[in-house]
Design a protein that fits this description.
The complex is a heterotrimer of chains A (221), B (487) and C (81). Chain A is mainly alpha-helical and 221 residues long. Chain A folds into two domains: 2-35; 47-219, Cytochrome c-like domain (Cytochrome Bc1 Complex, Chain D, domain 2, Orthogonal Bundle). Helices cover 52% and strands 0% of the residues of chain A. Chain B has a two-stranded antiparallel ribbon. Chain B is built from 17 helices and two strands. In chain B, helix 4 (133-155) packs antiparallel against helix 5 (164-183). The two termini of chain B are 34 Å apart. The chains are: A mainly alpha (221), B mainly alpha (487), C mainly alpha (81). Protoporphyrin IX containing FE sits between chains B (29, 32-33, 35-36, 58, 61-62, 65-66, 69-70, 127, 352, 354-355, 358-359, 362-363, 366-367, 452, 455-456) and A (98-99, 101).
Chain lengths: 221, 487, 81
Amino acid sequence: MFHWLEKNPFFFAVGVFVVIAYAGIVTVVPDFMESARPLKGVKPYTTLQLAGRQIYIENDCNACHSQLIRPFKSETDRYGKYSLSGEYAYDRPFLWGSRRIGPDLHRVGNYRTTDWNENHMLDPESVVPGSIMPKYGFMFDKSMDFDTAYAEAYTVKKVFNVPYDKPGMPKLGTYEEAKKAAIKEAGAIVADMKDQAVKDAYKKGDIKEIVAIIAYLNSLK
Amino acid sequence: MQSSNAINYDYTVAKYFTVATIVLGIVGMSVGVIIAFQLAFPELNNLAGEYGNFGRLRPLHTDAVAFGFTVSGIMATWYYIGQRVLKVSMAESKFLMFIGKLQFWLYIVTVAAVVVSLIMGITTSKEYAEFEWPIDIAIVVVWVLWGISIFGLIGIRREKVLYISIWYYIATFLGIAMLYLFNNMEVPTYFVAGVGKWYHSVSMYAGSNDAMVQWWYGHNAVAFAFTVPIIAMIYYFLPKESGQPVFSYKLSLLSFWGLMFVYLWAGGHHLLYSTVPDWVQTMGSIFSVVLILPSWGSAINMLLTMKGEWGQLKENPLVKFYVLASTFYMLSTLEGPIQAIKSVNALAHFTDWIPGHVHDGTLGWVGFMIIGALFHMAPRMFKKEIFSKKLIESQFWLQTTGIVLYFSSMWIAGITQGMMWRATDQYGNLTYSFIDTVEVLHPYWTLRAVGGLFYLIGVFMWAYNMYKTATSSRAIEKEPQYASPMA
Amino acid sequence: MDMELIRTLQGWGYVSMIFILTIGLYAYIYHLYKSQKSGIKDYEKYANLALNDEIDDCLVEGLYSQDEKKINRSVKNELAE
Ligand code: HEM
């Protein structure tokens, strides 16, 4: 049999493939079936939060920040309750990260406010001396992309049955309804901010990226 | 056999990919040096506004070195070794030549799209799988073309038996194909909702599932991109350059299967808590250890190949590259399992120790092997002597110093950081605020950046040497059988 | 299927994979050394695939006989002309 495999590259390749695939199936699939269930009380993101999440991804905040609190005392003391699998049920993609150049952010919404984040994103050093986090001043100028956020929410609702518009869950509705809701939600955050340019833009119906990312950070609890 | 004189190996595609390897190596590692300095000196984040900060550049670094430098290196060596050990020339098949060139140009277009999109922030955020769906499709096509090239060349071969390197290339091809497809399952949102950016997509998997697939991919992608094809290279270039047949060909066959199996096994050790009877689990563990043994055979095999020929290490700088590479391979295969131990992992995870570990593998093993391989190929492809032996020597020492600086500083940084995160005072309160643990790393981050800079300078020396070899070195009449000629 | 059962199947699937792979691997070791020793096949000569890899070097183990290949080549040459 071995002789034969050595001389038949095709069957050799098939053999390699079967072995790899079998191992993949055995090790991954069962975990898959187990961990797909959302924890009670976990809700999908609103479109504003989702837009913020997309900005988080666009700037690869996850290159420096994890979102996974491990069940060690030193971590729960620092960041809060350890993370549970069911909390991530609506995270597409997951943002656990692989590095902690900056602190974990899984529950940052519990201890950082809109106001703090506004100052910190503009100039981290001025809030935390010695910080090496980049400045994100451009988020105060750039408008957020509502359309793509809506498209994502709509897609996960349609394709993956994410429970938007179900009782007790965030409302998505039509494009116009969702846009109105996002503007309203942004208003509450803008009210807590002090940057005049962001406020002025908001009055004209233009939501800046900084508003969306703060909405997302505040939602991490 | 006068008719066979008419055929020569055709290195056109190998040359293309050689250029790509050098260029993308420079790009990827320059970005690596920049992000390394950004951590030490954060003002550097602001040089190019939104487009130049750490978050945008880090994926550019990892993808440019992995899918740029390394994959080009794999292709360049494949289009070289493949012909030679199968004893068939690309010139004999117009079709394969066309496929090879097509693959190259499509690859270049894809790489360009990757670079632009990552700087623009178009990313799915999953490490080594950041690309949005249009690029994913292009990558799949490039990969399929490579597959046609591999099996096409094998199909018209003269040599009946496939040399061990070919096995490793086949495994690389299959492994990456499967992993990449599974991990990049995504739904384009524009086509469902009709609004938003056309290239945006959302992952098929959510939360922990997504993490699991990504982890499975990440772990194995490292195996199939940074280990398997590099072993293919060393099995060819070390024996060929030194003129020594592989110490034991049988051992090389064994270690191939050993390695394939071990990577699969590594994915399953967390299963040991399942509902299977205890004795079965114990047997499973024992067998796992027995299975792991042959996988170290490759490195040992390489070192034994040089048995009695260690003098070459003094005379031939290329052999130096290969031998140091296999030493680093052993080092990182030793370090990996150590980090996988639960208590070690609790300390090391999320810290600088991880990039430290990654880079003694990538700089020492992947980088040195590719650099050494292309040096060996140059005189054969260009029919010229290597331009300067002295320059290779200095490059070797400069880069080795760079690697040592890199991993030693990262080990210290990682362990310091891990210890500080968990340190508590006598009342059980955390001793350090997070920013304390950042500030303490400054000297190590600086040292790492300097180490990386050394390595990068070495890459420039390599590029210069290769360029001079191709353009203005002395011509050679007859192809050398073993050691590469150098001035 | 309930999770318990899936887990059990998985455990068995995993353990049996390890068993089969290990047995396969060691059978292969046995096969290699046996064939070498009894002279059925000389594996070590394949190391020369890398060392003697000029296109007109002798084949280590040809796929066709040399003549056949020569014929193929001359046919090709004729076609090219
Ligand atoms: C010039 C030399 C290089 C320098 C200065 C450099 C620097 C860096 C830096 C600063 C990071 C980020 C680490 C962090 O998150 O803390 C990184 C990550 C990484 N680099 Fe490099 N790099 C170099 C060469 C390479 C090469 C040649 C390869 C591969 C062939 C490579 C592969 C990677 C990978 C895979 C990561 C991600 C590690 C992880 O996720 O933990 N690097 N590099």
